[in-house]
Amino acid sequence: MPMTFGWTDIEDIVLALDEAHPEMDALSVRFTDLRKMVEALDEFEAEPGHNVNEQILEAIQAGWHEERQEQAALGRDEDEPGGESGDELGDNPGGEPGDNPGESGDRRGYEPNQPFR
Predict the structure, then answer these.
(1) Cross-strand pairs, 5
(2) What is the pLDDT of residues 10-63, one digit of tens each?
(3) pTM for the whole thing?
(4) Of 87, 83, 112, 90, which Cα lies nearest the Cα of 9?
(5) Segments making up each domain of the chain, as ranges
(6) Per DSSP, what are the bridge partners of residue 44?
(7) For residue 64, which of 114, 112, 113 has the smallest C-alpha distance?
(8) Taking a C-beta distance cutoff of 8 angstroms, is the pair 45, 6 a contact?
(9) Neighbours of 91 (CB within 10 A)
(10) Which of 7, 44, 46, 97 is the most buried (most CB within 10 A)?
């Protein structure tokens, strides 16, 4: 049985949307269309008692946008001669994650509030 996810699984939704719609700009998608796109994903299965709302759709849209920004930054870094481009995303060349104040070392991205859990 394939893995499924529901409205509260923001990261799974973001990754599935990014794979299903690589040509789309996340910030140009209206919430009504975003909802339809999520519901059309093969792995999506609405959970009883977890209805979608504007806060969830906003978290999905922001996470999708951030995923695209990270991909674009990584794509630029790989294409440049000599490797990485430095401190574009708060990278710490030559240092360890956590050397800079406020840096956690985890760049996976968006962690929305999930009041349903």
Answers:
(1) 44
(2) 999 999 999 999 999 999 999 999 999 999 999 999 988 888 999 999 999 999
(3) 0.63
(4) 112
(5) 10-79
(6) 5
(7) 112
(8) yes
(9) 17
(10) 7
